[in-house]
């Protein structure tokens, strides 16, 4: 049942997101669209409650609980960012808004990647904390090795994101010659730290 709920929450996330953006930009109802977008955290709350109830009713801690913890952690770390990113792109594509900004080169891109790492840190911390809570909750009554392996996986994801950010810091992408981004990256390199 927990797997079906995880899938339903993921589908529900995208349905609410598409519905909210469609109401905002296609139907011209920005307030109703925003209200629909604000309903998305309710999905994670339902998932959290069902996961706890599953463990309370004697459910064996398993990979399903790990996936649920990762899903909730991702939503905490990246949920608002994802909605905002998609909202900007929908405004650009559907309502003729400006092209969404985004650093592609140089120091600005490295800073962006480290900001993503902070989001990953927040998501991993939430996932690890939820998994630790589940481990303490079930105690010695069940095998919690699967939950501990998901905690390790969260830390590996965090490490991979750190390597990606460090790569952009150590070997920044250079803008193609003659572009505005090339001039901006030159200026960024000349700023004092």
Shape: flat
Low-confidence stretches: 182-193
Strand content: under 5%
**Tally of contiguous helical segments:** 7
Structural class: mainly alpha
Quote the average pLDDT.
86
Topology as a string of helices (H) and strands (E): HHHHHHH
Helix content: over 70%
Number of strands: 0
- Radius of gyration of CA atoms, rounded to a whole number: 20 Å
Question: How does this model look, in words?
Answer:
Helix content is about 80%, strand content about 0%. The radius of gyration is 20 Å and the shape is flat. The chain has about 190 residues and is an all-alpha fold. The protein has helices at about 1-25, 30-35, 40-55, 65-95, 105-140, 145-170, 180-190. It has seven helices and no strands.
Which key phrases capture this entry?
0% strand, mainly alpha, flat, 193 residues
Give the arrangement of secondary structure elements.
Blueprint: H1 2-25, H2 30-37, H3 40-56, H4 63-95, H5 106-138, H6 145-170, H7 180-190
Provide a concise account of the structure shown:
The chain has 193 residues and is mainly α. It contains seven helices and no strands.
């Amino acid at each position: 049942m927990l797997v079906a709920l995880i899938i339903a929450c993921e589908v529900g996330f995208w349905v609410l997101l598409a519905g909210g953006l469609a109401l905002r930009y296609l139907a011209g109802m920005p307030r109703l669209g925003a209200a629909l977008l604000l309903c998305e955290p309710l999905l994670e709350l339902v998932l959290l409650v069902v996961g706890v109830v599953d463990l309370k009713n004697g459910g064996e801690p398993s990979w399903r609980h790990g996936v649920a913890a990762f899903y909730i952690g991702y939503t905490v770390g990246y949920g608002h960012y994802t909605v905002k990113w998609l909202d900007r792109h929908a405004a650009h594509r559907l309502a003729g808004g400006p092209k969404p900004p985004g650093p592609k080169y140089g120091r600005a891109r490295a800073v962006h990647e480290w900001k993503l790492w902070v989001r990953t840190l927040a998501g991993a911390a939430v996932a690890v904390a939820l998994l630790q809570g589940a481990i303490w909750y079930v105690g010695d009554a069940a095998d919690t090795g699967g939950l501990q392996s998901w905690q390790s996986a969260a830390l590996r994801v965090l490490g991979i994101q750190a390597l990606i950010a460090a790569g952009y810091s150590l070997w920044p992408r250079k803008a193609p010659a003659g572009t505005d981004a090339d001039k901006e990256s030159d200026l960024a390199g000349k700023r004092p730290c």
